[in-house]
Design brief:
262 residues; alpha+beta; Aminopeptidase; twelve-stranded mixed beta sheet; 12 strands; Acyl_CoA_acyltransferase; acyltransferase activity, transferring groups other than amino-acyl groups; transferase; GCN5 family acetyltransferase; GNAT_dom
């Protein structure tokens, strides 16, 4: 895989050419910024920017004003190769808070190691309805220690209105959900994104996360997607590298909450 060429393709197709990620969301292109505007339950933020030292601060100010008028917390998704090189510092100076850095990893589906087995007694359950979404949210809350209300609402809306754009699965040990994940399928591109992979404590280290990655990769291949993309935390990066994913750059969420500004 040509890393530079694939990263350039990712920037063009997924970021600069972004499509709404769910019902009720819209993508807007304003000057050198591509942003998504959604409801309070959806994701709001900047997915791409083509800025330089002369116009970066004005663009940041405009985005703050826009989302503040809407009363929306929003995220500026900054990648390690974005310009200007001090964009992260400019965002912090403007009142954004940086969340933990992740690694953008991409794998060519045909080259991935997919012969991964689930541990005995664990099965993969496709998620297609509210009951399944509740299971996924239960895993999410236990694995990450965060409230799943917003995430539950967004996934259910997507499964209802645009089921061809998302694949969600939950790993069940008997009647207990122990791991869950989803995949976003971006129509008209060669990329599918892996998101939300989490395993509850006590079930980690048994290969379930790897098995869910492999399962989704096979689905992506069946649907004609060439590349899989992951924003990997430090805990999942080694697993993904063993499966054949390559680190291409970093990505850091910078979050702005209007009511906390000033």
């Amino acid at each position: 895989m040509d890393h530079a060429a694939v990263l350039d393709l990712f920037d063009r197709d997924i970021r600069e050419g972004a499509r709404p990620d769910g019902p009720g969301a819209r993508v807007e292109r304003v000057g050198g910024v591509v942003r998504q505007v959604s409801s309070s339950h959806g994701w709001n933020g900047v997915v791409w920017s083509g800025l330089d030292e002369a116009d970066a601060d004005a663009a940041i100010t405009e985005q703050i004003a826009h989302f503040s008028r809407l009363g929306r917390e929003f995220e500026w998704k900054l990648y390690g190769h974005d310009l200007p090189v001090d964009l992260g510092r400019r965002l912090r100076d403007a009142g954004f808070t940086a969340e933990p850095e992740e690694t953008l990893m991409i794998g060519e589906v045909a080259d991935l190691t997919l012969d991964v087995e689930l541990p005995g007694g664990v099965r993969i359950l496709p998620v297609t309805d509210r009951a399944g979404v509740d299971l996924v949210a239960e895993v999410h809350e236990k694995a990450f220690g965060t409230d799943g209300t917003r995430w539950r609402h967004q996934l259910l809306a997507q499964l209802t209105a645009a089921p061809d754009t998302v694949v969600a699965v939950v790993a069940m040990a008997g009647d207990t959900p122990v791991s869950a994940a989803r995949m976003e399928l971006v129509p008209g591109t060669r990329f599918a994104g892996l998101w939300g992979g989490g395993t509850v404590e006590g079930w980690r280290g048994r290969g379930i996360y790897r098995a869910l990655v492999a399962h989704r990769a096979r689905v992506a291949a069946d649907r004609g997607y060439r590349y899989l993309q992951v924003d990997a935390m430090s805990t999942s990066r080694p697993i993904l590298e063993r499966l054949g994913f390559a680190p291409l750059t970093t990505t850091t969420p910078y979050v702005f909450t209007p009511q906390l500004a000033g």
